[in-house]
Amino acid sequence: MVYSGERLNGNQEQEWWVEQWLDLLQKYRFKKRLERGRNYARQGNVLTIRFEDKKVLATVQGSEDKPYELSIWLDAFSNEDWQYVVNTLSEQALHSAKLLAGEMPTNIEDVFAANGLRLFPFSLQEVRSRCSCPDKANPCKHIIAVYHLLGDRFGEDPFLLFQLRGRSKEEIIAALREKRADVSDSLPSQPSEEPPQAVASSPPLRIEQFWTYDEALDPSLVVITPPPTQETVLDVLGPIPVLSQTGNASLAQTAALEQLRGYFQEVYQTVSQTAVTQAMATPEGDSGSG
Q: How would you class 197 by CB atoms within 10 Å of its CB: exposed for 0-12, middle for 13-18, buried for 19 or more?
């Protein structure tokens, strides 16, 4: 796979996994070298980029006539590590669907973290690289230029990140399909011959008996106590808001309201006493044993 060395498109919105890859460069302390490498990428000095197995091989035109050759790679996961990752991916259909659609799931790192791994490098020091230029610093500006363009490649195909960790797109897809086939084969192919058990039906609901309860309540559940204060509901509600059209109550209206309030208080006390009497009453037919 050869990359033509097109200029970076600074106006195009980048995918989150591309930004996470490029964010590692922002932590690089040699800012001048970082800027020179970015300019190399923008000016088309990166001639070719190709992925071979688990490495990125590239050629970059520098100050010499002959382009420099460089390689970039990550620490690959073992076969056992990838087996655990595929098992976790197969259990989450949404992850598999997004990857097959060419999109990186936002919480893909959770899959790797669940198996003690990390897809993205934690720091720039975890990115291995080598360049044929005489610059002893690593990464040099040629590696940084390729590093920027790798972000563009990852935006086009997120599976390239997986390839640097040791698994190609075809291998991951084949492993996921095999895993799903194993799950399908484990499912019963024929329905159970046992007839379904009959569900016990409840008696139909009768509206007129909804509030009726014929069983006696446990005496320990019934506690009747006097109100904590002498205030009634009428005291809490306050004066009755009945005024004249002018907004001011006349003496006659005030007297009438006081008389009405006194009547309501008497009714309220009667209702309260009657409720307590009925609650304390012994049902007919019950006889105490003494």
A: exposed
Q: Give the C-alpha distances (Å, rounded to integers) separating 192 from 17, 24, 184, 188, 200.
A: 47, 56, 17, 9, 21
Tokens of 196: 């379904």
Pair of tokens at residue 109: 């790192």
Distance CA 286, CA 265 (A): 35
How far, in Å, are 10, 62, 95 from residue 36 at the CA level?
Answer: 16, 11, 38
Query: Exposure of 263 by Cβ count < 10 A (0-12 exposed, 13-18 middle, 19+ buried)?
Result: exposed
> For residues 204 and 110, what is the distance between their CA atoms, to the nearest angstrom?
50
Encode pLDDT of 206-246 as tens digits.
777 777 777 766 665 566 665 656 666 667 666 666 555 45
> Distances in Å between the alpha carbon of 121 and those of 26, 47, 117, 124, 258?
14, 25, 10, 7, 82
Which pTM does this prediction carry? 0.56
**Burial zone of 60 (CB within 10 Å; 0-12 exposed, 13-18 middle, 19+ buried):** buried
Q: Would you give the distance in Å from CA 79 to the centre of its chain? A: 30
The label of the residue with tokens 């932590």 reads 27
